[in-house]
Structure formats: structure tokens, C-alpha cells
Design a protein that fits this description.
single chain, 125 residues, mainly alpha, 82% helix
Length: 125
């Protein structure tokens, strides 16, 4: 792979990541925590998993669109680190709720990704 191609791909991912991270921040401002549960992170991760599933089934792995949208935008929008920090903070107050939040987030994310892959599959008429 040429240096020019690597630079283009890095720029696509960086630009997408900036957009996705900004969208996650906006979601965090719009959707407040409820009973200490970081709902914005849950919403971002589940919605992002669904959209990434659709993208993964529709776009070739090496396409510029998949790099920009999947790795960049959705990579910046979703976040495991925020899930971990939110669950840890919740753990200090309510361990059972924190465990349910963490497990529920992973289960919902997996289900959303599977649904996205199914929805994104090309239909043969």
C-alpha cells in the first residue's frame, strides 16, 4: 500500500472519528443520566452496533466509505471506555445495577449488530 493511500485512509478515519465523537458528545448533552445510568452511552453503543452491522453487510471492508463511516464515524460515536467508566461509577453506588447495565449493554450491542447484519443483507428477488 502506498504512502498516499495510507494517508488518505488515515484522513478518512480521522475526519469520521471527529464527527462521531462530536455526535456522541451532543447525545450526552441531550440525553441526561437517569438514576445514575449513563443512558447516552448505552444509546450510542447500541445504535452504533446496529448501524455498523448494516454497514458491514453492505460495504466492502476496504472501501473508503466503510473506513469513513464504520471505523471513523461509528468508531468515534460508540465507546467501550465510556461504558466501562459509567459502569464503574455506578458500581460504587449500586453494584447490582452496574452489573446489569454492563451485561445489558453488551447483550443489546450484540443483538443490535446481529440485527444490523440481517437488515443490511442484500435481498434476492
Amino acid at each position: 500500500m502506498s504512502a498516499r493511500t495510507l494517508l488518505r485512509r488515515a484522513m478518512l478515519v480521522s475526519a469520521g472519528g471527529a464527527l462521531g465523537t462530536g455526535a456522541r458528545l451532543a447525545l450526552g448533552v441531550i440525553v441526561p443520566e437517569s438514576a445514575g445510568i449513563p443512558l447516552a452511552v448505552l444509546i450510542a453503543n447500541v445504535a452504533g452496533a446496529l448501524l455498523l452491522g448494516i454497514l458491514a453487510s453492505r460495504l466492502p471492508g476496504s472501501s473508503d466509505a466503510r473506513l469513513f463511516l464504520g471505523t471513523g464515524v461509528l468508531g468515534g460515536f460508540t465507546t467501550y471506555s465510556a461504558l466501562a467508566v459509567g459502569a464503574t461509577g455506578l458500581w460504587m453506588q449500586t453494584p447490582a445495577l452496574a452489573a446489569g447495565y454492563a451485561v445489558g449493554s453488551v447483550v443489546l450491542g450484540l443483538a443490535a449488530a446481529a440485527l444490523g447484519l440481517r437488515l443490511g443483507r442484500r435481498r434476492v428477488a
